[in-house]
């Protein structure tokens, strides 16, 4: 029994590759950058949902670019990056499926 528990723990750790961990960190960090941008256009609960759709539809490169802006006020480029992802058909579909509003055109 103890061996099975240790083996399953080892399998879980093996599944967490350095790339998976890096992607997860980039997603969480990018979320802290995207949410304040979205909150400029809508209140809390809707902003949370819209942020999720944006993060879920951003490319790895976009997530990394957004994550680099952590800790600073979002500038024009950051806002444009958020809006670019927000206007993609996949993101719009996510918003509509979730009953969330679209971001206004900037």
Automatic annotation (TrEMBL):
Keywords: Signal. It comes from the Bacteria. Residues 1-22 form the signal peptide. This is Succinate dehydrogenase.
